[in-house]
Amino acid sequence: EKLFRRPLLVAAMLISFALILVWAEKISLKKDNLDKLTWQKVIFIGFAQILALIPGVSRAGITMTAGLFCGLKREAAARFSFLLATPIMLAAALYKLKDLFSSSTNLSSIYLWVGFLTATITGFLAIKFLINFLKKQSFFPFVWYRIILGLIIIFLYVLG
After folding, report:
1. Strands (DSSP E) along 28-151, which ranges?
2. 72-92: b (≥16 Cβ within 10 Å) or e
3. What does the angle CA 29 – CA 10 – CA 158 come to, to the nearest 5 degrees?
4. Which of 15, 70, 83, 103 could form a disulfide linkage to 41, CB 3.0–4.6 angstroms apart?
5. Model pTM score
6. Any idea of the CA torsion for 92, 54, 10, 130, to the nearest 10 degrees?
7. What number is the average pLDDT over the span 42-57?
8. C-alpha to C-alpha distance for 105 and 86, rounded to whole angstroms
9. Is the Cα dihedral 138, 142, 145, 151 positive or negative?
């Protein structure tokens, strides 16, 4: 696990996968909606998630990139990425909820519901914003974000 927590690895993955996203943006036909997904493409996008085990690789980013490589429109790739995440997030939430109730933490259920509702509403709003953004714009702002963050990490690492 220590191997995967190295700052230079994170920086390299941030920059590398930014460049892969640029490649996907450039070569993708970006014409298909979700109804054009084949089982082979779904499996390809699903397996792309495995790369997110490497620090610096975003699960959502890699699945959207894989969606572009499969010919999806940007907004369709984003929509599928978030649909793909739903079972994973639900399972993780249930697992953590079990831990919360089995611990000695005395947390009122009203706080849990407020937190759950707030996270759900803001999550849906963020997804809606991203999908609307991607209908008109490219992924390039995210490419620049990843490159700049990767360079900052390298710079701070070199400074020690």
Report:
1. none
2. bbbbbbbbbbbebbeeeeeee
3. 125
4. 70
5. 0.87
6. -60
7. 96
8. 27
9. negative
Which range is least confidently modeled, 54-58, 100-104, 112-116, 139-143? 100-104
pLDDT band at 94 (very low <50, low <70, confident <90, very high): confident
Q: Which amino acid is residue 54, in one-letter code?
A: I
What span, in angstroms and rounded, lies between the C-alpha atoms of 57 and 10?
A: 8
Strand, coil or helix: 72: strand
Contact 109, 101 (CB under 8 A): no
Query: Which of 124, 120, 1, 147 shows the shortest CA–CA distance to 61?
Result: 147
Distance in angstroms between the alpha carbons of the first and the last residue of the chain: 22
Are residues 48 and 65 in contact, defined by beta-carbon separation less than 8 angstroms?
Answer: yes
d(CA 67, CA 61): 10
In this structure, what DSSP letter does residue 70 have? T
Q: What is the DSSP letter of 137?
A: S
For residue 13, CA distances in Å to 2, 92, 100 come to 16, 25, 33
30: three-class secondary structure by DSSP: coil
Quick one: tokens of 21? 């996203």
Q: Which amino acid, residue 143?
A: V
